[in-house]
Design goal:
heterotetramer; A mainly alpha; B mainly alpha; C alpha/beta; D mainly alpha; C: alpha/beta; Rossmann fold; 6-stranded mixed sheet; 11 strands; D: two-stranded antiparallel ribbon; flat
Chain lengths: ~325, ~200, ~350, ~220
């Protein structure tokens, strides 16, 4: 009559892992609407292709390694969408395919599937694509034009504002263009207002931590204010640094991936702060424009170290508070 | 002042840009053993001490080799001899000065003294283009030691997380180590772009 | 909650649960007595009730009546004897039912207030306790009956806090406090006035399979099957639990399990389909929910990969088994079950 | 359960100890610099393997002969110097394989004299007979070179579609990352996993095949013992 698989708490919180994954998907889908509005239907094909490829690859790997497929496990869908978001709209399909395959086959499957990967698969896939086809990854198109399915010469290829930032210049973009993302950029990562709204939604759903994104953006703001290009007031250089490119998107989606961030609050703040510093270091020294992805990969390797540091620190703080003030 | 900027530039390039383990795949024997952070720091200290001390004679030797091209095949031999002698000096100095620390790592100290990292740094520093003056030579040797310690700390940190996960049986152990070494070197190649390190 | 505390603890001391006590709480408890408790002859203790009773007399009566405190399962007389030497600062009646569905302590308090309060006054006068109060759980929403602020000049203190409140409620009251369950006080009152031996215990029968959840005064020894027939089952329950929905024990065969003195509740649940298990994605909700500030995420992994020393260093043995982590886990993992299994598998260095 | 097949397989493994069972590159992870960087192409691997033959095998043979008369701290300095001396003739030998080899692999050619495979082999052959020492060194060398050639071929094909410089696959999109260190690491990771998978598959098949072999062979096996 009663199966033995039930254990101690016989009532469970209504929210399940499915809802955690669907939160992330819900937070990503509105960016597709905006990019469809700007670039036409090609963007949706790229997004669907990368998402479904990642999902199929993940299920195939699960079947190969563990002989069972968990059809409700949508974390690969999130990876696929994030990869397609940071690609330019005129990207060829084989570059997206290579990034997705690298993300799932090399970064996720060998480590043990959904909850066990050390590195963020989307970040690794994008880093791989940037390293292999760096020229293709930074060709952008002026928005508000319907792109044909196959890219031919009729489409004018432009350089994004991050290229001018890299050369030390300053893209003369008004605040509205920055917030609406109305400048040549990647598929989904330039619409600052929508990303900010999705961030609020994620924080409300406890899928993202506000102090993590904040501690990532503070060093970025400080450093870009300190060495701003000559003749530009610091505020504008901060806005350009953060919003004229995919840095804000990375800070909201790639940083708040629950699997690869540390688990303690102090560790998360340290992780965010050092990821911000590393991003600025990479931004000034790396030949690519999209350098935040490499910094996130490096910090993913160090996040277990932050956790162990916190575990070592916690008992010391507890004893300090017991001796110091009254504890609770 | 220029002395410091060049030293720091070489230090930074050796530590981050062309990290010995991730960008150049240079390792010490027994890189994959299970170690605590304390042991990692002692190994890093040994490497750094031997690197810095041997960088002074090595700089003089590289001056000679740069002028006479005929001796180039003997360059590795001379650097190896410098490295060996400095290691033996350090070995006996440590035996006398810090006997208890020496007793703990006596078995493995020789392997951390003369290996690819120490000889490799000297050779790479000698081949570097702007190693004409001593600051960038010494900065490179210092940066290589510090960079290798940071690389081992990164490996330790990933190992901490992987110890608690269920990696599939075919990837457990060395295969997964190679894969995450590859991914961290992918992250560090962001600084290098797609030109191969010399 | 200073910024430093928020930074270091990282845990919000438990979780808020909807109590769903309602249909059972407001109805008075119904007797379900078997022949045993009907035929027991009352005993006579021979003390006249005009003078206030002393400590020895009260513990003698409790021993005669074989009263067992349902809070911790210890006989009441033994508890009173152990406190005769100390001076008691706080004497409180525990009516905290912080687990959902369970209201077996609060219901008798609400429906026979005068008896419990007079018993409390007797004990307080006997032990010269400076403060006496009744502790009731505060975070209970959607209640039909109103819980009074004080019953006949005895203050009803609302213990505010999130679930596993029972353990931490009396921690900051200091060493010499005497805490007695409200049902035991009721039995003490009956023993003193009518000389009745304790043959019954108060339990709540609830769950989504029970047609009308209610509180029962059941004779000790009746089988769970009879109790369930008394309340009626609307569906075939997939699991029967004794002692609270959060950390109760699964009843294997209801025919042979008897109601004991410290049984708090019998719950019948029908869990439709245990959802497919996901891998733990490390979202960190269990760390925020753990009241004793542990890291259930890492403990679960240490126990499943047999890292005994690491688990013990992470505080495996401070786990109080309140199973809020499994409740909150979105991947439906049995964290609490695995951690308690781990506690048995890796004994602590000391014991 | 009839284990003849498994015993045969294990005997084969013991015979080729350095190549299949304890492959220095894939299961022990030694000689990392010599495996990852020079194996960007077949030319580099050929040069390194020839140099290895010339200076690794004799040094290990010498260390087998000397045995453990030398203390450890001296051993670590003497044998690299010996292999470095042998490296100089190897450099001229490699010169005529391809003249422009030294600017591409440069440093790594001179690291042959100090790599961890040498250290491992020196410690391993302390108390072995000379013949066993020589076969051990040859087996280690052969195992390392087989894997290095395999990786060199794959990476060169992936990166510029050529083998030993002759372009074979023209139209495939190039993958320049394969020639970098990260390509080597990931390729080695998957190769090591593949070898372990093959090993486990062979074991499981031979176990399964062994169980439905006719029983008579086990009696003869018992009788024969």
């Amino acid at each position: 009559m009663n199966s033995l698989r039930h254990h101690a708490p016989y009532i469970r919180h209504p929210e399940s892992s499915r809802t955690v994954m669907s939160d992330a998907v819900i937070a990503l889908v509105p960016l597709y609407f905006m990019s469809y509005f700007y670039y036409g239907s090609r963007v949706l094909f790229v997004g669907a292709f990368s998402a479904l490829l990642c999902l199929a690859c993940d299920w195939a790997c699960n079947y190969l390694l563990y002989r069972r497929i968990n059809f409700r496990d949508l974390s690969a869908l999130v990876t696929g969408i994030i990869i397609s978001m940071l690609m330019p709209p005129t990207i060829d399909f084989y570059v997206v395919a290579a990034a997705c395959l690298f993300a799932i086959l090399v970064t996720k499957a060998p480590f043990g599937g959904t909850g066990h990967n050390v590195f963020n698969p989307a970040a690794a896939g994008l880093a791989f694509a940037t390293l292999c086809w760096s020229s293709k990854m930074f060709q952008y198109v002026q928005p508000l034009q319907k792109l044909p399915f196959t890219i031919d010469e009729s489409v004018s290829i432009l350089q994004g504002p991050t290229a001018t930032l890299k050369l030390g210049g300053i893209p003369r973009l008004g605040l509205t263009e920055l917030l609406l993302g109305n400048f040549p950029g990647t598929i989904g990562s330039t619409y600052t207002l929508i990303i900010f709204a999705c961030l609020i939604y994620l924080i409300a759903r406890n899928a993202a931590k506000w102090y993590l994104t904040l501690s990532y953006l503070i060093p970025v703001a400080l450093l870009s204010a300190v060495n701003h290009p000559y003749g530009v007031d610091p505020l504008e250089s901060i806005a350009n640094e953060m919003f004229a490119g995919s840095l804000f998107f990375v800070s909201v989606y790639l940083l708040n991936d629950p699997v690869t961030t540390p688990k303690y609050r102090i560790a998360r703040i340290l992780y965010g702060f050092s990821a911000g510093l590393m991003t600025m270091f990479f931004r000034y020294n790396s030949p690519f424009e999209l350098s935040a992805v490499f910094a996130i990969l490096l910090m993913n390797a160090l996040s277990p170290a932050f956790d162990c540091f916190c575990e070592w620190l916690m008992p010391k703080l507890q004893t300090a508070t017991e001796k110091g003030g009254t504890n609770e | 002042m220029i002395f410091l900027t060049e030293l720091f530039a070489a230090f930074l390039s050796a530590m981050m840009v062309e990290n010995l383990l991730f960008a150049r795949a240079i390792d010490i024997p027994g890189l994959y053993e299970k170690r605590t952070p304390g042991q990692i720091f002692t190994i890093g200290a040994v490497l750094m001490v031997i690197n810095c001390i041997s960088s002074i004679p090595a700089y003089l030797a590289s001056g000679i080799f740069r002028s006479h091209a005929a001796f180039v095949p003997f360059m590795t031999l001379s650097f190896l001899l410098i490295n060996g002698i400095v290691f033996i000096l350090c070995y006996f100095a440590m035996q006398r000065l810090m006997p208890e620390r020496f007793a703990s790592i006596q078995k493995s100290l020789p392997f951390y003294g003369v290996n690819c990292v120490t000889l490799g740094t000297l050779l790479i520093a000698a081949r570097m283009s702007n190693s004409s003056h001593f600051s960038s030579f010494f900065g490179y040797c210092l940066g290589a030691g510090v960079g290798f310690t940071c690389a081992m700390l990164v490996l330790w940190s990933i190992r901490q997380k992987l110890a608690l996960t269920h990696t599939p049986k075919t990837f457990r152990g060395l295969p997964i180590t190679f894969i995450y070494l590859g991914i961290v070197s992918l992250a560090l190649f962001g600084l290098l772009g797609n030109q191969l390190p010399s | 909650m200073s910024f430093f505390d928020w930074l270091t603890t990282g845990s919000s001391h438990g979780i808020l649960l909807e109590q769903e006590k309602e249909p059972a709480l407001s109805k008075p408890f119904l007797p379900f007595l078997s022949s045993v408790s009907l035929q027991t002859q009352p005993f006579s203790h021979g003390y006249d009730l005009s003078k206030p009773l002393s400590k020895a007399q009260l513990s003698h009566i409790a021993a005669l009546a074989h009263i067992i405190d349902e809070r911790d399962g210890k006989p009441l007389s033994q508890k009173l004897d152990s406190c005769t030497k100390q001076s008691i600062d706080f004497l409180c009646a525990d009516a905290i039912d912080d687990e959902p569905y369970v209201s077996s302590q609060l219901n008798p308090l609400l429906h026979c207030r005068t008896e419990i309060v007079t018993a409390l006054n007797w004990l307080a006068d006997a032990f010269e306790a400076k403060h006496r109060f009744i502790a009731v759980y505060k975070n209970m929403s959607s209640l039909d009956t109103k819980i009074p602020a004080s019953i006949e000049s005895v203050e009803v203190r609302r213990m505010e806090g999130r679930y596993p409140m029972e353990i931490r409620a009396f921690r900051n009251l200091g060493k010499n406090t005497l805490i007695i369950g409200s049902a035991a006080l009721l039995h003490l009152y009956r023993a003193v006035t009518e000389g009745r031996v304790q043959t019954t215990s108060f339990i709540t029968v609830a769950g989504n399979c029970v047609t009308n959840p209610c509180n029962l005064e059941v004779t000790i020894g009746t089988s769970v099957d009879q109790v369930l027939e008394r309340c009626g089952l609307s569906r075939e329950p997939s699991c029967l639990i004794e002692g609270g929905a959060m950390h109760g024990i699964l009843i294997q065969n209801p025919l042979h399990t008897m109601v004991r003195a410290d049984t708090r509740s019998i719950l019948a649940f029908h869990i439709d389909r245990q959802e497919q298990l996901y891998n733990c994605i490390g979202c960190g909700r269990c760390i925020e929910a753990c009241p004793s500030g542990l890291n259930p995420h890492k403990l679960y992994r240490c126990v499943t990969t047999n890292h005994a020393q690491k688990a013990i260093s992470l505080g495996l043995h401070n786990c109080i088994g309140c199973s809020t982590c499994s409740y909150v886990c979105p991947s439906r993992l049995d964290l609490a079950y695995t951690i308690t299994k781990g506690k048995q598998k890796f004994p602590n260095a000391k014991d | 359960m009839n284990l003849t097949l498994v015993r045969k397989y294990n005997k084969l493994l013991r015979k080729t100890d350095g190549i299949l069972l304890h492959n220095p590159l894939l299961t022990l992870g030694l000689a990392l610099p010599l495996a990852i960087i020079p194996s960007y192409g077949l030319i580099g691997t050929a040069a390194v393997s020839v140099a290895m033959l010339v200076c690794f095998v004799p040094t290990v043979f010498l260390s087998g002969l000397i045995g453990n008369r030398l203390p450890l701290w001296l051993r670590v300095v003497v044998y690299p110097v010996v292999s470095c001396l042998l490296l100089i003739p190897a450099r001229y030998l490699v010169q005529n394989i391809s003249p422009l080899i030294f600017d591409t692999i440069g440093v790594y050619f001179s690291l042959i004299c100090v790599n961890s495979l040498l250290m491992y082999s020196i410690e391993k052959v302390q108390n072995k007979k000379p013949v066993a020492v020589l076969t051990f060194a040859l087996r280690q060398w052969l195992g390392a070179c087989l894997i290095a050639f395999l990786c060199g071929a794959i990476r060169e094909l992936l990166a510029n579609g050529s083998l030993w410089g002759f372009v074979i696959l023209k139209d495939l999109p190039r993958l320049p990352v394969a020639q970098m260190a990260l390509g080597g690491f990931i390729l080695f990771g998957f190769l090591a996993a593949l070898c372990r998978l093959i090993h486990r598959l062979i074991l499981s098949f031979s176990l399964k095949a062994g169980s439905n072999l006719p029983q008579s062979s086990t009696e003869r096996g018992e009788a024969g013992k």
